[in-house]
């Protein structure tokens, strides 16, 4: 969530893994450049 991602609604139960899944949306054009460099390296 520090990257600017948004949780888009309530969790959904995943019975196969017995966990809660969240739909998360991340606009890659609004991510801070320091995170882009960290995850993707120098571009």
TrEMBL record:
It comes from the Bacteria. This is GNAT family N-acetyltransferase.
